[in-house]
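Encode chain A's predicted structure.
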Amino acid sequence: MPFKDEYEYKRARTCNIFLAVKPKGGRRQAEVTARRTKTDFVRFIGKLVKKVYAGAQKIHLVMDNLNTHFHGSFEEILGIKRANQMLERVEFHYTRKHASWLNMAEIEIGIMDRQCTGHRLASEEILMSEVAAWKQRRNQAKATIDWRFTRQDADQKLSRHYVA
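Encoded structure for chain A:
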């Protein structure tokens, strides 16, 4: 009698990766966290504001509408005064629902998945090491995103969402 072996996928631990990309500057910041909490998000944005782009007059962040990606998260974690101080140079731009393809970080996440994270990694430490090495390679190469989506393309693709 033939033997039948079944495979059952067992999900192990998961981690979160925050990613910020400067598409025309060929720079990206990535950070692996154990979870994706408001505290983790606020800490990541704080590093962008205070260290990475400390000299920038305005930091534009394009992101989805995840529950942690709002001003209220900063107020809850930092208090109103500190949140306002941190975010005075930050402007949030939110993608529409089902429009993550408009978010260049999503494009970079796809590249990271193909080049780095698209397979099982044995531990969070290995993931952190792999992501750091990937980020360093991409930054050294000054890899940019060649955005070819025009205003006309947007009008054609999104016209059904426009209010007359």
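The chain has one domain: 16-161.
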